[in-house]
Design a protein that fits this description.
With 65 residues, this protein is mostly helical. The chain has a single domain, classed as CytochromE C oxidase copper chaperone (Helix Hairpins, Orthogonal Bundle). The N and C termini lie far apart (46 Å). Its main location: mitochondrion. Keywords: Disulfide bond, Mitochondrion.
Length: 65
């Protein structure tokens, strides 16, 4: 039996929020923030693949500036 992705709940919450709010991201900032927090803890989560890259690129930009 496969394990459930630790950040799947947050990923689903983002999808549900975006659909309910006509894909206006600013209306879903709280659930997106929850996803980022989960991804900080569970970097190997499949659901976090886009968030992990975003997090690393922000760190790189900070170092370059």
């Amino acid at each position: 039996m496969s394990q459930k992705d630790p950040c799947q709940k947050q990923a689903c919450a983002i999808q549900k929020c975006l659909q309910a709010n006509k894909y206006i991201e600013r209306r879903c900032e709280d659930v997106i923030r929850d996803m980022r927090k989960c991804c900080e803890v569970h970097e190997s989560s499949v659901c976090c693949s886009g968030f992990a890259k975003e997090h690393k690129s922000k760190d790189t930009k900070t170092l370059i500036q």
